[in-house]
Design a protein that fits this description.
Length: 482
């Protein structure tokens, strides 16, 4: 890298670039690729005070005004897609093809939030249906909840920031953004695009830092709503720090995909190879556990292994690369260690199992025991475990043994199994004839159990970022008064 991307704090309407800075070393390039100004105590105090003062001003913006700004930002993101994908590649080691996909989703998310902003309203309640309501009228509206804190993760820092910030602004709130330390430049770049598109400076602030910054912001009485995406342990800490305020948590996963005996094995293997290793498996819904009916088990294991060995691994800035680097060396080493443990417990490693720095070779672990860490815990890395099953009820029960419940995949053409899985699997979403790793940004997304609280996607997030206010008009009726 010949240039370094600077990411300042945007506090109280001004970019602050001086003071203490944290350097981000690219996991593939091994060079400093960005620097971010670390927020100090005085910055947090100023940002919180400004957010409280700015809340009413942002709330006064008409929904059409908010929507127009978001639509302009969507167009700008599309125009700057290559630059943003390049930032994802150098800061995170995310291949350009994955980064381009994420940026396309950012533009879609902004556009969807704009459409939802235009739909915010309320309803006239049927109060005259009960005796005490006769002669009166009641009306509701969705009103901004107040300052929102958006804490975003490293694995999809642009799109998940778009979800939180766009929905918060569409709802009429001001937002404080605490981006991941691993992706400060791309986070700041998206905030700049929104400001250039006309988002008022009062509507957004960005504060860089670690968990201490997030904890203080969560606990601050000025914050009305906290939206966090990240790991389970950090999510529990966020909820504890936030206390009795509204909290949305999108946490970890241990996604299962079930392949029935009637499935197209070649297609299932192709899909699982493509979605199990995108972003080096660093996704909460990445394919991790693949349960295959025993009659097709070896056939699928061979097909998946062949597909995985065909993936291009290496430089994330090479458009041909399928798998770049993980977020850092420690993350890659942990997955290597878990792979070795599974092999020691009798599993076969049919692909991968090695790393070079933060670049981990896509790994397939066949037949690990049910208690292996690659099965029971969230791998969050370039590894897929393949396990056999005999009965459908048995495999559903096995999937549900996980403490996580975010999303699952199912390959079958049997409608009875589809309905059974939808009813019985303890997950927030089920993808049929696709893997667990598929998401549409305009439909609800979220989990149960340790996978979190609430649903993401603009429409459902706007519900969380607003409150219902009721207007009761005594003695004034539209319903009739006798």
């Amino acid at each position: 890298m010949n240039t370094i991307n600077e990411a300042g704090c945007f506090v109280a309407g001004e970019w602050l670039t001086g003071g203490e800075q944290a350097e981000r070393v690219g996991p593939y390039s091994r060079q400093v690729v960005s620097r971010a100004r670390t927020a100090q105590a005085a910055d947090l105090t100023a940002a919180l005070a400004y957010a409280r003062q700015a809340a009413k001003q942002v709330a006064r913006l008409a929904p059409a005004t908010r929507a127009d700004i978001l639509e302009r930002a969507a167009a700008s993101v599309t125009a700057q897609g290559e630059r943003l994908a390049g930032l994802l590649a150098v800061e995170l080691g995310k291949p350009l093809k994955d980064g381009r996909g994420e940026i396309l989703r950012v533009a879609d998310t902004l556009s969807v939030a704009a459409a939802e902003a235009r739909m915010i309203g309320g309803e006239v309640l049927p109060v005259a249906g009960w005796g005490r309501g006769v002669g009166n009228t009641a009306i509701t509206q969705r009103a901004p909840a107040g300052p929102v804190l958006a804490i975003t993760p490293f694995n999809a820092p642009a799109n998940l920031l778009a979800h939180k910030l766009a929905a918060s602004f569409a709802a009429g709130n001001t937002t404080i953004v605490k981006p991941p330390p691993q992706a400060p430049a791309v986070s700041a770049a998206l905030v700049e695009i929104l400001l250039e598109a006309g988002m008022p400076v009062e509507a957004v602030q960005i504060l860089h830092g670690g968990g201490d910054v997030g904890a203080r912001l969560c606990a601050a009485p000025e914050i009305a709503v906290v939206s966090f995406t990240g790991g389970v342990t950090a999510g529990h800490a966020v909820a504890h720090a936030a206390g009795p305020k509204r909290v949305m948590l999108e946490l970890g996963g241990n996604a299962a995909t079930i392949i029935c005996e009637d499935a197209d094995i070649a297609e299932a293997a192709r899909v699982c190879a493509r979605t199990g290793y995108s972003n080096s498996g660093q996704s909460c819904i990445s394919v991790q556990r693949v349960y295959v009916h025993r009659s097709r088990f070896e056939e699928f294991a061979e097909a998946l292994t062949a597909e995985v060995k065909g993936l291009a691994v290496g430089d994330p800035l090479d458009p041909a690369t399928d798998v770049g680097s993980m977020v850092d060396d420690d993350a890659a080493e942990r997955v290597i260690r878990w792979t070795a443990e599974a092999a020691g417990q009798g599993a076969r490693v049919t692909a991968g199992g090695t790393r070079e720095g933060a670049v981990m070779a896509p790994t397939v672990v066949v037949g690990p025991p049910a208690e292996a860490r690659v099965v029971r815990e969230e791998v969050f890395g370039a590894l897929v475990a393949v396990l056999p099953y005999d009965g459908f009820e048995e495999v559903v029960e096995e999937c549900n043994r996980s403490p996580y419940g975010l999303q699952a995949g199912l390959f079958t053409h049997d409608v009875r199994r589809i309905v059974t899985a939808w009813r019985e699997l303890e997950v927030g979403g089920l993808v049929v004839n696709g893997s667990s790793n598929f998401r549409l940004d305009h439909v609800p997304f979220g989990g149960v159990k340790d996978s979190g609280i609430g649903r993401e996607s603009p429409r459902w997030m706007i519900e969380d970022f607003t409150v219902t206010k009721t207007l009761l008009l005594k003695g004034l009726t539209i319903w009739g008064d006798q």
